[in-house]
Amino acid sequence: MNRLRAVAAVWIVLGAVGVPEALAEDPAGAPAPAAAPAPAAAPVKATSDFNRELLTIEENVNTLKERVFRSKATLQLLKEIVVQGSSTGSRGSVYHINKLGRGYTIESVAYYLDGQGKYSKIDPSGGLDKEEEIKVFDGPIPPGNHNLTVHLKLKGNGFGVFSYVQEYVFNVQATTAFSVEDGKSCKVQAVVNERSGIGRSFTERPYVKFETRCIRLAEEGPEGR
Fold it and tell me: Between 44 and 50, whose confidence is greater?
């Protein structure tokens, strides 16, 4: 009974003076735990991420440097090709020149350079007679020996006492060989003409004469003439 009275007296005193806030929150009287410090691993992680980004940027810069180097090498190679191309290699040009008289009509013409067809046209109406000059071919060709062949189909265009030649239809073929040196351009003219002379037959008069002229590429004009 005396113990109960003593405990009751203590509680009465505490109620009069007020219970401390710390004791009110924790009856055991233990102090409140302090805030935990920031983890030390955060700065280390940030430094690691920065180093990784820096390494990536460095790799990208090295890749760009390599691309620039390759581009410069390619441009240099193209420059050398252009410079060398102006002084090396060879070119050829072929022209059809018509000097036939009005006694003949060219119905068709075909040109072959080294066995490959370069020009072919058929016009029985006489349109080819109006073409005094035709560019048959103009372009690069390998240095060395070449062959040019021309095939013509002619028809008589007689009048008056020579009207009988209108029944004549015949072929004329001619071939020439020419050589092109490296760094030069050769122009070949195939001149279609007719021989004079009363003793020659109507079909023997037409012929093809080849005229070849070669010059250095540096001396060639803008039209290759």
Answer: 50
